[in-house]
Amino acid sequence: MSGDAGPQSPADDRRLSPYTGWTRRHLQHLADRSLLALRPWSTPGHARFDLPGPPSDSGPIIGGLEAFARSFLAAGFRLSGAESDPHDHAGWYARGLATATDPASSERWPSLADAAQARVEAAVIAIALHESRRWIWDSLTPRVQEQVVDWLAGSIGSRYPDSNWLWFHNVTQAFLRSVGGPYDQAKMEENLEFLDSCHLADGWYSDNRPDGRGGNIDWYAGWVMQQFSLWYCRVSAGEPGTAERQAVYAERLKAYLTGAGALFGADGAPLHQGRSLSYRHAAVGALWTGAVFDANPYSPGRLRRTCMGAVKYFVERGAFDEDGLLSPGWLGRFEAMRESYISPGSPYWASLGLTGLVLPESHPVWADVEQPAPIDLEDRVGAIRPIGWLVSGTASDGIVRAINHGVDYSGVVPVAERPLYNRFGYSTATAPVPLSDGSAGKAVDNQVALIDRRGRWSQRPVFDLISIDDHRAESRHVARFARAEPGEGFDEGPELTCVSLVRGSVEVRAVRIGSAVRAEALVISGFAVPRKPAPGARTDLVSAVVPLTDGGSIGIAVHAVENAFGADLEVPWCRFDAPEPDRWYVAAVSLGDRAPSWPTVRPDASGQPVVTWPSGEIERV
User: Which residues, at least 6 apart from 248, have a Cβ–Cβ distance to it below 8 Å?
Assistant: First the structure.
C-alpha cells in the first residue's frame, strides 16, 4: 500500500512470526491505512465513499454505501478492543451514520425496502456498530440512534432470498433487538430453521440450492454461513437459546475449518474457486472467527500463520492501488473479474480478513510463536467429503489443488458450465480459462469432454458424487452438448463415469463411457498456466497431461485471453480418438514447479485398470 497517511509500517518480527513476519500491529496498521485512504473520496457528510470506477447493477449510490458499510466493518474490528483511536475512526463513521440516516439529508441512504443490496450492507453496519458500541453507538445522540434504528428497521417485511442473505436479515434484527428497537422474532426463527436445513455435514453449507443438492459451494460457506452465524450469536448474547445455538455453530465451524484451513498455499494464496473472489482475504474471516469463539481446530500459532499469510499475500501483490484503494481483482486490479454486482466499494468485504483485531494482543493467537501449516512441512492429500473435493498440498512447491467431484453450481435446469465451479481441478496458483467449453475448438482447463461429429465439445453442468475417500473420488455426469442457438439448452450424450486418484502433485483421471457413442474424440485436459504471468503471479509453474492407456495423443491449447494470473493461457491436453463404450481411458494430470515422476497403468485379468505409483504403491481404479 502507498500513501502518506498514518504511521509507518511496522518492521517484520521474525522471532514471533518466523513464517510471515507479521504481527497484530501489522493488521492494525493495514486497517488504519486502508481506512485513511478512503477519506478523500468521502461525500461531505461522510455518508458514502464515492470511489472511481464503473458502478454495479445497483447504481453508484449503493456503491458508495457499500464502501462505507464494508470499511466501517474494518473500523468496528479495529475499535473493538482498542484503548485509543488516534485517527478518529469513531468520529468519522459516527458523523456518516448521522448524515446517512437523516431523512432530510441529501446524502441519506436508500431504504432497505427500496434497495435490496442495502439489506446486505445493513447487516455489515450492524456488526460494526456492535463491535464499536462503546466508541460509537453509546456516544450517538438519542436522535441519531433513533434514525439508525429506523433505517435498520426497514429489514422488517423486506424480502431476503432463501440463501446466505437470511443471515443478513437475522444479524440486522439481532442488533435491533439488542438496542431496544423493533424486530420480528417469528421471522428470525423461520430463517434459522431454513439455514439449518442448508447444513450438509462437517460444517459445509449449501447455498440456495433449488433442487436440494449440495453443489452450491464457494468461499461464501465461510465468510457468511459460518462467520455471520456466530456473529448473530455474539450480538444476541443473553437471549434465550443463544448459548445452545452458539455451541452448535461453533462445532460446525471447527469441522469446517479442518477442511477449509487446508485450502491455502504456502505463499498464503487461498484456493481460486467460486464467485466474488475480489473479496480476497475475506477468506480468512472464518479462521479468525474460530479463535474468537473457541472453535479453532489448530494451534493458535498455526492459525495466525495461515491468516496473516493470506492477508500479506494480497497486500504485497498489488491488491491495493497506488492511492491505497482496494481494487477489483485478485493479485492487482483486474477488471475482468468485476461481476455485475461488484461496485468499486464491494472489494471492502475483505474487511472480514481483519476479524482477528477483536482479539486482544494478549490472546494466544497473537502472543504465541507462529507454527507451520502442514504444507510447510509435508505433502498431504485429504478429502472434504460433503462437497466431493480431494485436496492435495505439496510442500516442495507450496501449491494446493482441489480435485472437484461435487460442486457444479447448477440448478434444476442445466445451464452452461461456469468456469469457476464446474472444472475438475482448481489451485492456489492458477485460475480457469474464462470460457465455458471448447467452443473455440480448443481444450479449456481441467475438462473431461467428448467431441461429437459436429465438432461440439460436451459440458458437465450437472454431476453427481458417487463416492470419496482420502485419495479417491468418483462422479458421474451426462455429457451435454450445447445447441446452436442461445437459450435452447443441450442435446444429451452418453453418461461418463470419472474417477480421480491423487498422490502429491499428480491426479490419475480415469474415464469410462457408459453407452454406445458416436464421438470423434475424448479429451482430458490439465491446469491453465499463463505464458505472460501477471505481476505477482508465479513464473515457475509446470502443467502437464500424459496418457496412461493406449491410443492417447497429447498437445497444448493456447487461449489468447487473460485470467487473474496472466495472459495467453496454455492448457495441456490428452486426446483419445474414436472412444468406445465400457472401456477405461486413463490420463495423469499434474501441476507443480517441475515435471513429476508419472505412474503407470496396466489392466488386470478382468480388464480393469491398475495404477502403480512411482513409490511402488498399487491402486485399482
Answer: none
